[in-house]
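FORM 12-B: Structure-to-Sequence Request
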């Protein structure tokens, strides 16, 4: 990545610009803008997050926001209320208060003498979500958004209930946010006394969100609010949507390109959950240059040619040997002028011959351990690995070896006719690339809670022994399967630890299955190119403790329990400008007995540290989830230390009835 130090306009930075909301709550913003913006006003770009601009997202902020400012923008990175250096309290993700604050910040920015009245909004993950949700509120000054790794459906395509199945990440992310939001503001900004009052008030009111999310197990009004798929026409700002094939949020780009009436373009690369100018696997792209083309067109009314760009640009990945990490993925960029593309044809493959005896699917509960993380982001061993261990626990339909290569571009589907011997059952379907020597690489997967086969809003219990029809939509993908390889469709009724198991062991009888495969004419090479990555000067830090990620699967031969243990030590660094040192460690364990779904348990333990010149704080957060046949049980604890003194502790514990999960 090329570091740019000279820009068309000189940049000035304001590390703690206060933005006071109508209710008096002061939000803290870090702002970069041209030094002469008061004399030559510029558009503003907003990123509105709970992840702490002082020490959380500072690595990527340093690369990105000064770059925009140097090219004639006021780039505003706001800590949401209740987080970082901002006042107030946070009660949930994507709350009405959060979105109203974003609208109020946009109105504030547009009214400043250094702003020309036009505003854009951008972000990845949480910021990618709320920029779309804010756009749906239609604040007058908001003209364009760039949304990365986001969703249009908070229920079925976020970390909550994929296909109506309870994702383990529902609990995992609640645990993460409990830790993230437990940290205090920086005393250097908040004041030597005030920081502590803000911190303790924050801790006393901080939510543990897992119980709230578990109380909404169906797609009710709670999830519909903020899901822009409820009314795509509400989005009137121009939208650039970006994602990665190794991320959990890979479907949004297609959804937006298909449904948005406002100007919209989509880009999907081979990346994990990161901005694509520094993401992996490579190749990276010049994301900041692409973003400037977008901003210049919609915020400055400069003809940059973005309207003539293909609607959908995707990286078709070549087949590789299965591995938990790939520093790069060979392949090529393809371009579709319109999306969906008329050039992509659906090939149907009958997996079960008509008149055949039903095939029994009864997977061990530990099936799924090769699936990887829902959204990898550590540049470590988080990708799906060799699939043969999971294939051995699944029913597999192997296709003949290909006589010529194929490009799969789109969302594969599998239509099934199936009966269950229990009133609730899950089904997981994986599409794999099987090498000539038998190695199995995951291409895409989909899961479905079969009680939701007609509706996520109004699920119905299955009648044991009664056959139902269901459609399992796998995630969007772009993948080349070479000649000599074969496709494998693997079917299981467990996928741990991606989804929480059914309350009872289940037998499915699969009587019919049809694969619908989206095939694109074979690309001969890159159909579109991107500039090489550029960025502003990186964050200047001193490493105190190096980062490290570990992942282990252990089987207790005495008890039969299978445990996945994960330790992500994000290291500790000191900022060389303001001196604040921060470090964090995440520990997770996911355990289950192959024969007993009620043995499933998840535990997390996070440590966060902050220090400077003899001052230090530390928070330890612990959380656990398990279930019986009737209820989910979750508990959590926060311990907060000033120096080595425990100054705050709080416990959470709740039992939530299981619905049709």
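FORM 12-B RESPONSE
SEQUENCE OUT:
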């Amino acid at each position: 990545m090329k570091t740019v130090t000279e820009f068309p306009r000189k940049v000035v930075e304001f590390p703690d610009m206060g933005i006071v909301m109508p209710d008096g709550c002061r939000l803290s913003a870090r702002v970069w803008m041209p030094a002469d913006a008061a004399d030559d006003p510029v558009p503003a770009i907003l990123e509105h997050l709970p992840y702490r601009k002082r020490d959380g997202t500072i690595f990527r902020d340093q690369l990105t926001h000064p770059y925009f400012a140097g090219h004639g923008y006021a780039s505003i990175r706001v800590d949401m209320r209740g987080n970082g250096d901002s006042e107030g309290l946070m009660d949930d993700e994507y709350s009405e208060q959060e979105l109203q604050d974003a609208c109020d910040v946009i109105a504030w920015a547009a009214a400043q003498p250094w702003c020309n009245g036009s505003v854009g909004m951008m972000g990845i993950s949480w910021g990618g979500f709320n920029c779309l949700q804010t756009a749906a509120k239609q604040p007058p000054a908001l003209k364009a958004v760039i949304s990365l790794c986001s969703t249009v459906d908070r229920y079925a395509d976020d970390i909550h209930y994929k296909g109506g199945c309870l994702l383990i990440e529902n609990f995992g992310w609640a645990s993460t946010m409990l830790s993230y939001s437990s940290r205090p503001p920086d005393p250097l900004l908040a004041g030597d006394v005030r920081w502590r009052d803000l911190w303790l008030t924050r801790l006393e009111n901080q939510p543990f969100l897992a119980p709230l999310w578990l109380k909404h197990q169906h797609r009710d009004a709670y999830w519909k609010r903020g899901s822009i798929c409820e009314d795509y026409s509400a989005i009137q700002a121009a939208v650039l949507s970006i994602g990665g094939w190794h991320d959990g949020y890979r479907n949004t780009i297609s959804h937006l390109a298909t449904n948005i009436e406002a100007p919209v373009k989509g880009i999907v690369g081979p990346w994990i959950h990161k901005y694509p100018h520094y993401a992996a696997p490579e190749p990276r792209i010049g994301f900041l240059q692409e973003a400037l083309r977008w901003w210049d067109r919609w915020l400055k009314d400069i003809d940059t040619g973005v309207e003539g760009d293909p609607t959908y640009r995707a990286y078709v990945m070549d087949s590789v040997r299965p591995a938990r990490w790939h520093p790069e993925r060979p392949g090529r960029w393809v371009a579709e002028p319109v999306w969906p593309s008329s050039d992509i044809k659906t090939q149907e493959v009958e997996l079960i011959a008509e008149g055949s005896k039903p095939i029994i699917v009864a997977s061990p509960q530990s099936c799924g351990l090769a699936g990887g993380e829902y959204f990898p982001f550590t540049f470590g061993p988080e990708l799906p690995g060799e699939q043969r261990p999971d294939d051995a626990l699944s029913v597999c339909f192997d296709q003949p070896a290909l006589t010529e290569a194929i490009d799969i571009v789109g969302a594969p589907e599998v239509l099934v006719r199936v009966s269950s011997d229990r009133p609730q059952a899950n089904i997981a379907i994986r599409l794999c690339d099987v090498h000539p020597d038998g190695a199995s690489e995951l291409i895409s997967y989909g899961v479905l809670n079969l009680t939701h086969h007609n509706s996520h809003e109004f699920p119905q219990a299955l009648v044991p022994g009664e056959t139902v029809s269901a459609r399992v939509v796998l995630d969007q993908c772009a993948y080349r399967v070479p000649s000599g390889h074969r496709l494998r469709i693997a079917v299981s009724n467990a996928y741990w630890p991606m989804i929480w198991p059914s309350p009872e062991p289940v037998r499915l009888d699969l009587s019919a299955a049809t694969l619908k495969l989206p095939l694109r004419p074979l690309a001969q090479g890159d159909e579109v190119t991107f500039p090489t990555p550029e960025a502003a000067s990186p964050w200047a830090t001193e490493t105190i403790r190096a980062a490290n990620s570990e992942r282990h699967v252990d089987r207790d031969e005495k008890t039969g329990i299978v445990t996945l243990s994960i330790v992500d030590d994000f290291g500790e660094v000191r900022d060389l400008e303001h001196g604040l040192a921060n470090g964090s460690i995440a520990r997770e364990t996911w355990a289950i007995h192959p024969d007993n779904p009620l043995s499933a348990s998840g535990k997390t333990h996070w440590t966060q540290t902050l220090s400077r010149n003899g001052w230090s704080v530390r928070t330890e957060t612990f959380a656990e989830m398990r279930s019986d046949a009737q209820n989910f049980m979750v508990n959590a604890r926060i311990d907060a230390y000033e120096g080595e003194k425990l100054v705050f502790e709080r416990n959470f514990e709740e039992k939530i009835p299981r619905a049709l999960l």
